[in-house]
């Protein structure tokens, strides 16, 4: 009987002894940033009304750039007419109650649709600090399309040549001190 109580005490303390995993700052970053940006547009009166928050978020999502990470979030939450699900209540109610955005995204919306927290912003590529020959064609093409340049080539070398031709318009040259560090 004594062994059983010791075993029970050990089992009950194990969860408290386990170290918490450090919080990944990129976990739900698109959700948190988008909802914070939306919440800043609300008046104090609107922040306490679930209906006004839902209506406001739908309106906010109509203005978001199509094919952006924010647009995808709006789709997942159900704020777009084309959305397959409707989970906007999981956003509007906690927001009206004053629950922090991080908690809304990482706990409530994540339970509804884990894909919401898979959305991450892409890190910009440092053109001056990277060897373009080591990048994939997909990345080279993305650089050019992000700059608004044509990117319809057949060979990787053509993409690299085009990036080098136009990069002075879009990228600041590396300073002399940065060049020495490399």
UniProtKB/TrEMBL annotation:
Keyword Signal assigned: yes
Keyword Secreted: yes
All copies of domain ARMET N-terminal, residue ranges: 28-125
Highest taxon of source: Eukaryota
UniProt-recorded name of the protein: Mesencephalic astrocyte-derived neurotrophic factor homolog
Family membership: Belongs to the ARMET family.
SUPFAM superfamilies xrefs: SAP domain (SSF68906)
GO terms under biological process: dopaminergic neuron differentiation; neuron projection development
Signal peptide feature range: 1-19
Pfam family name, one: ARMET_C
GO terms under cellular component: endoplasmic reticulum; extracellular space
UniProt keywords, alphabetically: Disulfide bond, Secreted, Signal
Compartment(s) of residence: Secreted
Residue span, ARMET C-terminal domain: 130-170
């Amino acid at each position: 009987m004594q062994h059983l109580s010791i075993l029970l005490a050990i089992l009950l303390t194990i969860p408290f002894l386990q170290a918490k995993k450090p919080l990944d700052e990129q976990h739900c970053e698109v959700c948190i940033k988008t909802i914070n940006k939306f919440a800043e547009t609300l008046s104090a009166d609107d922040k306490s009304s679930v209906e006004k928050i839902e209506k406001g978020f739908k309106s906010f999502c109509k203005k978001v750039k199509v094919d952006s990470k924010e647009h995808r979030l709006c789709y997942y939450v159900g704020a777009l007419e084309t959305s397959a699900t409707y989970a906007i209540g999981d956003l509007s109610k906690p927001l009206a109650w004053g629950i922090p955005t991080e908690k809304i995204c990482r706990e409530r919306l994540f339970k509804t649709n884990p894909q919401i927290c898979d959305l991450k912003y892409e890190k910009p590529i440092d053109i001056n600090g990277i060897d373009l020959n080591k990048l994939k064609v997909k990345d080279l093409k993305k650089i050019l399309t992000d700059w608004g340049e044509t990117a319809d080539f057949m060979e990787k070398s053509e993409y690299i040549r085009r990036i080098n031709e136009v990069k002075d318009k879009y990228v600041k040259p590396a300073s002399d001190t940065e060049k020495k560090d490399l």
